[in-house]
Design a protein that fits this description.
The chain is mainly α. The protein has six helices and two strands.
Length: 124
């Protein structure tokens, strides 16, 4: 499943992933940005139309919750990024990240461990 999130949609999803089911007012408060209530509501409704968010009635308010996992959204975004900017190559994406952002010794160790684990899994 391809998951496409605009910047503001991603920010709203972060709130729902971190806080769980929330009302429009709660999401708006946690965003910390000067967004109008109706703007946040519109974003939540768009996310719901895409199937990424659902809601339940809670008195007069609706409580919105994520219907997609954060990891699924991350994987989809990375696949899309790799496809669009790195010719579909995860190697080029990783090389660019390392060259551009750099890595600490601890991060390099973790990356090595993950690569070794992946290679062990993929051996017949």
């Amino acid at each position: 499943m391809r998951i496409a999130l605009a910047e503001r949609e991603s920010e709203v999803m972060q709130v729902l992933w971190e806080s769980g089911a929330s009302t429009v007012s709660e999401v708006r408060e946690k965003l910390g940005a000067a967004l109008a209530y109706t703007t946040v509501l519109t974003i939540l409704r768009k996310l719901e139309a895409k199937g990424y968010v659902g809601h339940e009635e809670s008195g007069r308010a609706h409580r919105y919750s994520a219907r997609i996992a954060r990891d699924a959204a991350r994987r989809s975004a990375l696949r899309d990024l790799a496809k669009r900017l790195f010719k579909g190559s995860s190697e080029l994406l990783l090389v660019h990240l390392v060259e551009d952002q750099g890595v600490t010794e601890q991060q390099a160790t973790r990356i090595r461990e993950l690569l070794e684990k992946h290679l062990r899994k993929s051996k017949p």
